[in-house]
Prior knowledge:
By secondary structure, the protein is of the alpha+beta class. It has one domain. Helix content is about 35%, strand content about 10%. The strands form two sheets. Strands 1-2 form a two-stranded parallel ribbon. The radius of gyration is 16 Å and the shape is globular. The two termini are about 20 Å apart.
Amino acid sequence: MSDTALLVIDGQESFRHAPYWSEVDLDAYLERQQALIDGATMRGIPVDYVTKATLTFAVIHPNGQIVSPADIKARTELVLAGRFARIATVEGALAGRPMAAAA
């Protein structure tokens, strides 16, 4: 049994209906997310979806500071990288993983 799985976090449709939604970078994000899901599936890597786990929109800190999505991403990577997760590109995540045998 492999100890590898793909967790798709906050890739849900509900954000599109929220007042803070922005279409900026959506097409590129969706293309890369789908490439990763497809690549994992073709390699027999289980894919699971976690919703509403992170902040992917600008928020106002209690001190009044506006925290941008880019800042949230950088802070999330700072906490996760090397501790709980490996931050990788689609290609890096799938590198060295053979395609699953056809059923």
